[in-house]
Amino acid sequence: MKSTSHHDERIAKMIFGSVYPHYVAKVEKKGRTKEELNQVIEWLTGFTENRLQKLIDEKVTFETFFERAALHSNAQYITGIICGYRVEDIENPLTQKVRYLDKLVDELAKGRKMEKILRVS
Q: Which Pfam families does this chain map to (predicted)?
């Protein structure tokens, strides 16, 4: 499945803070915690919980969110299908980063062990 420029632009302009509560609800519904979610986000982006809250308060877009992030060097090992797209094949770098995050949230919600989610060897 190939994403369109309209799709990529829509993702870039979405406000991270408007999606974050959905991430929290998804993982909590499956018995995981907000703290675990924040740990996963920190692993991917380098954002501490305080920094994450500041970005939410600033109402940053996903574009700005990932511009400010220090993506983990093992992020390239995030593979699989999320939202109908194979994450390793997504051509737009920003859309791929957003889908990396979606994939990690999905893995957390599905009960995957934290060391597997964080790609610990």
A: DUF2200
CA distance 56 to 115: 27
- Burial class of residue 64 (count of CB atoms within 10 Å of its CB; 0-12, 13-18, 19+): middle
Q: Alpha-carbon distance 104 to 75, whole Å? A: 10
At 7, list the tokens: 């799709």
- β-partners of residue 15 are 61
65-111: per-residue pLDDT in tens?
999 999 999 999 999 999 888 999 999 999 999 999 999 999 999 99
Domains recognised in the chain with CATH numbers: 5-112 (1.10.8.290)
Q: How many CB atoms lie within 10 A of CB 110?
A: 11
Contact 30, 111 (CB under 8 A): yes
